[in-house]
Specification:
This protein is α/β, with parallel strands linked by helices. It is built from 15 helices and 8 strands. The chain has an 8-stranded parallel sheet. The protein starts with a helix and ends with a helix. The chain binds iron/sulfur cluster (2 copies). One iron/sulfur cluster binds next to helix 15.
Amino acid sequence: MAGTRRGFLAGSMALMGARNMSAAPAMEMPKRTLGKTGLKPTVLGFGCMTTSDASVIEQAADAGINWFDTARGYQNGNNERMVGAALKSRRDKLHITSKTPGRTKADVVAHLDTTLKELQTDHIDVWYLHSRSNPAACPDELFDAQDEAVKAGKVRFKGVSFHSGHKEMLAFLTEKKRTDVILMSYNFTMAETLDPLIEKASAAGIGMVAMKVMAGGFRSNKPGSPMHEKLSKDGTMAAALKWAVKKPFIHTSIPGIMDADQLDENFKAVCAGYKADLDGKLLAAQLERIKPLYCRMCGACTGQCPKGLPVSDIIRYVSYAEGYGEFAMARDHFKLLPEDLQEVRCGDCSHCAVACPNGVRIADRVSRAQELFA
Ligand code: SF4
Ligand code: SF4
């Protein structure tokens, strides 16, 4: 592990050039233009959701990463505070984005003011309406609140994030023309039929940011476990990241990064680029392995559960626990479901009425959530 960390630091120092005594070749992290915003994020951004060590965030900034994504809801409400503290001394050189879960104008306005305090900044670069999987979750009053926040100088650009409902949301936001940046789940498990819609949104000037690029991680939780080490070593996780960022219409990505080794792995992956033969084989094998477990958020099962369960969301929470190793965060999400839905038990159904065309074992996964979190 130490050797890897040293490798990263050597790369970082090379990147910082001026501070490096030697004439080592620079490992330049590419940047892309984020639609009409004109911002130039590094293709590798930093999703801070699962990071509990602020020094990893500082190391990423030292290495040249300039895009940091947070939300107050992460880590029991502490994530914005930590990110703000880590990046305060270099705020003007970086882009920080955050999100609001608010459903009314008054809620989102109050939420933003707290966000700025927690992040110790007078503005954020992109402010997302968080996790909106259908147009009904984006009423005009929330877009109005975003416009007013821009006018007040608290926000530079307006965003919307979603985990599912891609087709509907991409079409809606492109048509609506009130959004500068889209943050969406996007990875190798998703049908490439989405790409034309993403390209269309990008061509309309919307900046595109990819999250969930590792498709749930699923390297068996924390460093040290055999599967974690195997998938890191054989490059499967790196291949997943490379797959997402090889698309020119994806302007930046925000994989979760928990420690210096993951930072190193991701940094090197993006600089190396996707190799169809090697990386493609690794991803095909990973797809086969995670098929029964990982929900691709295609939306095909929406509304199918007669008990009203939001199946895709619940399976995502299980992947937070089993893929990312973030049990507390996973349970926090589950506990936000309405109480009557938390009380449903799949074991009471004689058969599962929900079919997944992608092979996810829905009743097993939702039962697992009920067993772990209810
Ligand atoms: S469970 Fe299957 S059908 Fe439902 S959203 Fe996920 S991948 Fe699509
Ligand atoms: S088994 Fe679970 S997911 Fe399937 S129909 Fe019953 S309650 Fe819904």
